């Protein structure tokens, strides 16, 4: 799933490609992806792109005051095409193409989603705040207003909720998903199941520093890369996420996994849980 660093880099890449370009047409290949009807999709046609920005994990293309907002969900991506086909795409459940944006020189964007579970969402709105997911976002963890004091308040209000879930909840902190929450907790040497309100001042400072460092470094590494390079860059720098069975790059212990119904987390026992493996909830249920 694209998270804050990748969406930030996508926004920067697309800003350079799209600014001051006219949108000629937007084709919808997967009708379930378009979540709005007013303003109509046609409001984008003929509009000049003025900016491309990010709100959490949402991508925002501002075209003369009308916004095409994209949430790429788990398997979505944006692909630049130097030349798009002349014929519009045919709707198909088998094709990964969800939307195609055609520009004034016949170049454009393909917004795609792999797999069969279709969660990608596109919104055409007058204000990004009209998108419910954006309106409910928590603070961006890389802005100046996200201070350690603000973070400690978040942890206190979260109560006994597990810190992994607090980091991932978009209404609490915007932009951190499953991968970077694993990476942040590994950098902070903290169990993903630790209750949020139990953190000491020192622990909350350590976790705050890990958030800023892990995300900030990922943004710096991604800045200037083309969209086609971002997935590879992310994977090549993950310490524990997606690394089950491999040695921890810090201590050499084997990276472990806890599986859930539709996701999993990865961690290092030596670095994060005092050497104790965490119970795999899904496997525990199978053994009962």
Automatic annotation (TrEMBL):
Listed GO MF terms: 8-oxo-7,8-dihydroguanine DNA N-glycosylase activity; damaged DNA binding; DNA-(apurinic or apyrimidinic site) endonuclease activity; lyase activity; zinc ion binding
InterPro entries in alphabetical order: FPG_cat (IPR012319), FPG_N (IPR035937), H2TH_FPG (IPR015886), Ribosomal_uS13-like_H2TH (IPR010979), Znf_DNA_glyclase/AP_lyase (IPR000214), Znf_FPG/IleRS (IPR010663)
Cofactor or coenzyme needed: Zn(2+)
PROSITE patterns referenced in this protein's UniProt entry, alphabetically: FPG_CAT, ZF_FPG_2
Alphabetical list of SUPFAM superfamilies matching this protein: Glucocorticoid receptor-like (DNA-binding domain), N-terminal domain of MutM-like DNA repair proteins, S13-like H2TH domain
The FPG-type domain, residue ranges: 239-273
Gene3D superfamilies recorded: 1.10.8.50, MutM-like, N-terminal
GO biological process: base-excision repair
Record keywords, A-Z: DNA damage, DNA repair, DNA-binding, Glycosidase, Hydrolase, Lyase, Metal-binding, Multifunctional enzyme, Zinc, Zinc-finger
Record's catalysed reaction(s): Hydrolysis of DNA containing ring-opened 7-methylguanine residues, releasing 2,6-diamino-4-hydroxy-5-(N-methyl)formamidopyrimidine
A Pfam family it matches: zf-FPG_IleRS
Domain Formamidopyrimidine-DNA glycosylase catalytic: 2-120
Classification via PANTHER family: FORMAMIDOPYRIMIDINE-DNA GLYCOSYLASE (PTHR22993)
Record family assignment: Belongs to the FPG family.
Protein name: Fpg/Nei family DNA glycosylase
């Amino acid at each position: 799933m694209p998270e804050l660093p990748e969406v930030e880099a996508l926004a920067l890449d697309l800003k350079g490609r799209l600014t001051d370009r006219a949108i000629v047409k937007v084709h919808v290949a997967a009708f379930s992806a378009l979540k709005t009807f007013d303003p109509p999709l046609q409001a984008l046609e003929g509009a000049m792109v003025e900016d491309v920005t990010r709100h959490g994990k949402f991508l925002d293309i501002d075209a003369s005051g009308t916004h095409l907002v994209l949430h790429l969900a788990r398997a979505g991506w944006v692909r630049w095409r130097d030349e798009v086909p002349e014929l519009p795409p045919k709707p198909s459940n088998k094709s990964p193409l969800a939307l195609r944006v055609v520009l004034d020189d016949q170049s454009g964007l393909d917004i795609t989603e792999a797999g069969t579970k279709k969660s990608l969402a596109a919104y055409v709105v007058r204000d990004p705040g009209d998108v419910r997911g954006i309106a409910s976002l928590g603070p961006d963890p890389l802005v100046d207003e996200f201070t350690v004091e603000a973070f400690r308040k978040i942890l206190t209000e979260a109560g006994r909720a597990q810190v992994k879930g607090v980091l991932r909840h978009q209404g609490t902190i915007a932009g951190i998903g499953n991968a970077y929450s694993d990476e942040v907790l590994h950098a902070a040497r903290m169990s993903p199941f630790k209750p949020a309100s139990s953190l000491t001042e020192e622990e909350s400072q350590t976790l705050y520093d890990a958030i800023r460092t892990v995300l900030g470094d990922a943004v710096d590494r991604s800045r200037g890369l083309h969209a086609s390079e971002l997935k590879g860059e992310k994977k090549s720098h993950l310490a524990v996420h997606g690394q089950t069975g491999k040695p921890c790059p810090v201590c050499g212990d084997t990276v472990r996994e806890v599986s859930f119904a539709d996701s999993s987390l990865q961690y290092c026992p030596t670095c994060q849980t005092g050497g104790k493996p965490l119970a795999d909830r899904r496997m525990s249920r199978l053994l009962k």
